[in-house]
Design goal:
The protein folds into two domains: about 1-55, no CATH class; about 65-155, Microbial ribonucleases (Nuclear Transport Factor 2, Chain: A), CATH 3.10.450.30. By secondary structure, it is of the alpha+beta class. A hairpin with a 7-residue loop joins strand 5 and strand 6 (about 150-155). Helix content is about 30%, strand content about 15%. The chain has a six-stranded mixed β-sheet with strand order 1-6-5-4-3-2, covered by helices on one side. It comes from Caballeronia calidae. This is Guanine-specific ribonuclease N1 and T1. GO terms for molecular function: hydrolase activity; RNA binding; RNA endonuclease activity. Pfam families: Ribonuclease (PF00545).
């Protein structure tokens, strides 16, 4: 009886160790919040092909949006940025690292992120405005409606 149990434990342990590092464990991590831009690129496929297929924005491919075309909640967020607050969320104004380099490159600390309220959402939602330069300046701002996967430059 003890031998059967020990053998069963060895089989289970081998199965667990054998599954580590395989694609199955990687896909579980991706389902827990990794975006399409963070997904591994299959061999033989260019990263730009992956971005195009997923709808992600290519680096340096910024489009523009006029302030009048933004949702009214984004216009309110811009007003709050210019006034210096008060902001509805404690996370507003935090450092935005631009680690995906979708925005023009600047030294660390240049960009700050602000929440754009989403009607009907119980949390902060996915919409943000990221502004660069000194606080209270809205001359170098970008709008994202897909939680930093793509950006539109906000034009005057």
């Amino acid at each position: 009886m003890k031998r059967a149990r020990a053998f069963s434990c060895i089989i289970v342990f081998s199965a667990i160790l054998g599954g580590c590092g395989k694609d199955g464990s990687r896909s579980a991590v991706q389902e827990q919040g990794a975006s399409a831009s963070q997904a591994p690129v299959p061999p033989g496929q260019a990263a730009s092909d992956t971005a195009a297929a997923s709808g992600a924005q290519a680096k340096g491919a910024l489009t523009s949006v006029n302030k009048s075309q933004l949702p009214s909640e984004a216009a309110e967020t811009l007003r709050l940025i210019k006034a210096g607050g008060p902001f509805p969320f404690s996370e507003d104004g935090v450092l935005f690292r631009n680690s995906s380099v979708l925005l023009p490159q600047h030294p660390r600390g240049y960009y700050h992120a602000y929440t754009v309220r989403t009607p009907g959402s119980a949390d902060r939602g996915q919409r943000r405005i990221v502004c660069g330069g000194p606080r209270r300046q809205i001359g170098d701002c970008y709008y994202t409606e897909d939680y930093y996967a793509s950006f539109k430059r906000i034009a005057e």
